[in-house]
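Z., the sequence and structure:
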Amino acid sequence: MRKVSENDYRKFITWAKDNTANNVYPCSIAEGIQSGDIYVNDDADADAVFLWHYCGFGYISGKPSDKFLNDIYSVMRSDHNQRRLVLITSDDTVTDYFRDKEVLLDSRLEYSYHPRRYTDETDISFHIEQINAENISRIEGRIIPSFSWKSPDRFLKEGFGYIALDRERVCAVAFSAAVSSDEIDIGVETHEDYRRKGLAAILTGRMCEHILEIGKRPVWAHSISNEGSMNTALKCGFVQSKKNTVIRIGSMK
């Protein structure tokens, strides 16, 4: 397969929008909002496109040949990648191709949003503020802006988010993990010392309000085993819309 020049990414917006598993991550690449790579067939005519987001999520649009899938599998197994490759698909032919390969199969739930206002901000001991240049470096964890944004400057220019503070300590964060012209995927992390206090739902509510105000749709997704993420999604008005297959090497981190 052949890597596409970034100058040509916008030619693949339609392919990204036609992806059957997810739209916001593929579109964030094709629209030039977030970092990632796009690959097509070696020949001139593209019948499949592979979009690989900076965070490691990969999506295939179109009808990939076995050779195209084998090239993706080779990338997945390579020890030289600077980032992981977690393939997310709703295409049974893609899943069937990988069944006899040395991979792990899992499921990922995707949600759409049915507007409602989450107002249960009863714990006034926490201060909520928007992520900015002064506080972004204090955010720690795995699902934080650096998970899906190549630099703080890029995030602050194209994304946004909120943090909950206990005095000066950042104890929870919600942010735009993926951004397209139509949708924003919300990423959330709460420090283990502050879980089960409703902070994830409070911050998610703030995110949804902001997303709707700027004329976009909030979306949400998580591994099928992540009950905490599921509970937050349902509490804040998200409704499960589809279940995708996740294909990866090793454990999901």
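The chain has a mean pLDDT of 93. Residues 199-213 form the longest helix (15 residues).

Let me know what you think.
H.
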